[in-house]
Amino acid sequence: MSPRQRFVRCASPRGLDRMSYLEWGDPKNARVLVCVHGMTRCARDFDALAAALRDEYRVVCPDVAGRGDSEWLADPLLYQLPQYVADMVTLVARLDVETVHWVGTSMGALIGMMLAGMPNTPVGKLVLNDAGPVVTRVSLERIAAYVGLAPAFPNMAAAEQYVRAINATFGPHSDAEWRFLTEVAVRRNADGTLRMHYDPKLGEPFKAKLPDKDLEFWPQWDAIRCPALVLRGAQSDLLTPETCAQMKQRGPKAKVVEFAGVGHAPTLMHADQIRIVRDFLVG
């Protein structure tokens, strides 16, 4: 079954913008799972996970502002965590439920962590995929090297070559999986060339405030009270073993699972990764 596409209008200091989200499973199911993608990715990244969980959940996968089918923000400096968290609060209100479970990859994990640490949070269970309360400087430099670029590709093969290169840390995937990861993340220009399907300006605040040291969000982590699962690529440059060790001892005292042969970040497309997430959420 294909997902349903819906839209919700979110507010920013510059007005309203329309956010797209995909919905899987029974639309009347009160059990809702929200899945939020990484910096330059999109809602379709969770197709495999959503298909595996749609019998238990109404699975909701938004395109964060400036990505996928969501509108671009009028002020690119708003492409930051406070705006993203506010948009997700609006989304949860649209879903008309009091509690959601959350799976977030990279940026989506940080959004979920911020929301879960707030008083009266709607987050009842939290899965952080290769991100946590410390974001390393080296990973920020790596991301800054490609965020905001707007290359044009003559065909899908060239686009796939680019996607494979910048996402090599996803780990081993089949040719079909790489083609899927490419096709959901590109759109065609008027001249027939292909481009990455996000606002190139979303990199502006990221690069303008690139810190000279690691970013730390320990107060937000320590405020979380819901059960938490942390997934880590064993070769991740963003989430370190040292940070994971502290996450097991502080705040919600998370369970940590590491995937060999993967860097930043596990795609949650493979059966072993999906099983770990499903067992935590449904078990």
Task: Give the structure's gist in a few sentences.
The chain has 283 residues and is an alpha/beta fold.
Strand order in space, largest sheet = 1-2-4-3-5-6-11-12
> What is the makeup of the main sheet?
8 strands, mixed
Shape: globular
- Terminal Cα span: 24 Å
Tally the helices: what do you get?
10
Mean pLDDT reading: 96
Question: How many strand elements?
Answer: 12
Task: Assign a percent range to the helix content.
Answer: 25-40%
Structural class: alpha/beta
Structural topology:
Layout (H helix, E strand, L loop, with lengths): L3 E9 L2 E10 L7 E5 L10 H7 L4 E5 L18 H15 L4 E6 L1 H10 L6 E7 L4 E2 L1 H8 L11 H11 L8 H9 L2 E3 L5 E3 L6 H6 L6 E2 L1 H5 L5 E6 L7 H7 L7 E5 L11 H12 L1
Parallel strand pairs: 3-4, 3-5, 5-6, 6-11, 11-12
Antiparallel strand pairs: 1-2, 2-4, 7-10, 8-9
Helix pairs in contact: 2-3, 5-6
Describe this protein's structure:
- With 283 residues, the protein is an alpha/beta fold.
- It is 32% helix and 22% strand.
- It contains ten helices and twelve strands.
- Strands 1-2-4-3-5-6-11-12 form an eight-stranded mixed beta sheet, sandwiched between helices.
- Strand 3, helix 1 and strand 4 form a beta-alpha-beta unit.
- Helix 5 packs across helix 6.
- The chain is globular, with a radius of gyration of 18 Å.
